[in-house]
Design goal:
It is built from 3 helices and 5 strands; from the N terminus they run E-E-H-E-E-H-H-E. The chain has 140 residues and is of the alpha+beta class. It has 2 domains: 68 residues, no CATH class; 64 residues, no CATH class. Strands 3-2-1-4-5 form a 5-stranded antiparallel beta sheet. Strand 1 and strand 2 form a beta hairpin. Helix 2 runs antiparallel to helix 3. The chain is elongated. The two termini are 15 Å apart.
């Protein structure tokens, strides 16, 4: 599992709004506490992600929690993002090359196949985000 530290901004109807600062990975370092102080100071918003997570337990505002996500989910997502457009690019390019034997038609058709692969990835990723497996878990 991959873990990240987060600060709770609000908790309404079991939906937590969390602030996660970029590039905070090491929680064993002595500087970890110094790195967490800018999270509460929201003037530096370009270095902070705000996400919403459903959680059944009631948690207080400004409380520190850990988020975790399974490594398999990250691998599935990375495979989907990178391989689907490549598969579209190579398959459409290969089919056009076999049928037409014309490079002037094959190159734009291959790019069209890559674009279709990107659209398929966007559509499929929206469906995957609805699954509970792809949601981060809140650890206390």
């Amino acid at each position: 599992m991959i873990k990240a530290s987060a600060t709770i901004a609000s908790c309404e109807k079991h939906v937590l709004s969390l602030h996660i600062q970029k590039n905070i990975v090491c929680k064993n370092c002595s500087i970890f506490l110094d790195l967490l102080t800018p999270i509460l100071n929201l003037s530096n918003t370009e270095k902070i992600y705000t996400i919403q997570v459903c959680d059944a337990q009631y948690i207080l505002k400004d409380q520190q929690v850990e988020l975790s996500i399974n490594k398999n989910v990250i691998l599935i997502t990375a495979c989907l993002i990178y391989m689907t457009p490549l598969l579209g690019l190579f398959s459409v390019g290969g089919i056009c090359q076999m049928l037409l034997c014309n490079d002037k038609v094959t190159a734009p058709a291959a790019l069209l196949g890559g674009a279709i692969g990107i659209l398929i990835t966007k559509k499929f990723s929206k469906r995957l985000t609805r699954l509970e497996l792809f949601q981060p878990e809140v650890l206390k």
